[in-house]
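Quick note —
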Amino acid sequence: MQSLRWHLLFSAVVGVLLFTLYASFAFKGPAAWTIGLVYIAYDSLLLGFMVVSSQIAVTRQERRKKTAPAANLAPETPRPTLTVLICARNERLVLPECLRALAAQTEPADEIIVLDDGSTDGMLEWLTTEYALAFEPAGANSAEGRSARWPALRVWQKPNTGKADSLNLGWKIAQGEIIVTLDADTFVEPDALAAIRDGFVEDPALGIAGGVLVPVCRRTSWAGFFQFFQTFEYARGFLWRLTWMQYDMLLLISGAFAAYRRSVLESAGGFDTTSWVEDYELTHRVYQQAFNAGRRVTVKTLSGARGTTDAPASIAMFLNQRRRWFAGFIATHFKYQDMVGNRRYGTVGRYMLCLKTLDLLLPIYALAAAVVLVVLLITRHFLDSFIVKLIIAKLLFDLALHAYSIVLYQRWLGIPLSRKLWVQSLGATLSEPFVFQIMRQLGAVFGWLAFLRRKIDWLPQRQVSAPAIILEGQSPS
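Predicted structure written out below.
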């Protein structure tokens, strides 16, 4: 019955897509652009809901801070032990900075485990020299190294088996009650791990948590372009997570900086080694198992846990990343289709997964709307005045709400409002539909192709040795 609901909903989305494409050939006037009207209506309703809900969530947070200033944890509150897992393959260029950031924590990790997944760039040799590692055999073709200079640091050298498999090895040998997964190109701020501990102590039901990340692009000819657009994309994306969090239906936690209660990982059986998005898939499974067992589990983004992370700075890298993300999203959604519309799974099933069903084809709607608009202009040599007015209204609507979302984002993080960042967001909103959004939609379409072919070709993230840069005014702190 539940699977039938999903099939009916998905079929309806496909049916509307086919009808709107037919309308572009069969109808005249504004009706010829029905696909654009449908896309604009849905996108505007969703954006309006997200901004209003974010406003409510941010205001509630600010009121709690004002009315309960003594809500800090008592000194006698036990602090959970915490292990950081870094699965790294050929990350010699960025791993030193990642470890330096961990060493500078106000509340350091009890244990840091670096899993060298068959690196060939000298990363293991650097670790051995820098931290005076002494290795002992730890299984077939594997060895464990312990540092004489940093007692908390353990390094496992192993054959290349992939990130998810390395994560599963890591959390099973880890000693901490909280397991933090960290990409080697993610650099956390000094209070980040303390904020993670606070979050798990304050909410005993918290099973999975994530930090707030700012993208950093490296020195390529396209770095400025991608830095500019991804900065605002990430800011809005993390703010939207606050909205889903307050309705208990947050599904997306970035594996680049995520934290898991060990008992949750044990119950779920760890990460799925066949998934293209193992962090996203695991969240679905945790929700499913918790609801089936009648247990309450919460998933949150912790605003105090912040950092920067490497982001694609070339067209090929960006499209490959978005193809993998979207293909993984499709595969995960199909895998858990029985949860869609199922009241048994709370707001996750009733609302979030229904929205995700619509989102499966949203990029195709958007790209098709752009193509149809161009075709109408070429074949008819003009656009109906209603369509022109609608596009202008949509740009102004997005301009106002995107600009306000940046204000909300900074209020949420409790950082000074940046006028420069706010002004830049206006430029990003006006230009996004004509450049960046098209690239995102292309990546999603490629994701559909990859899903249907059941194949993803992985490309290395780092192809240059230049250091990462952060553009002025774009750090969250």
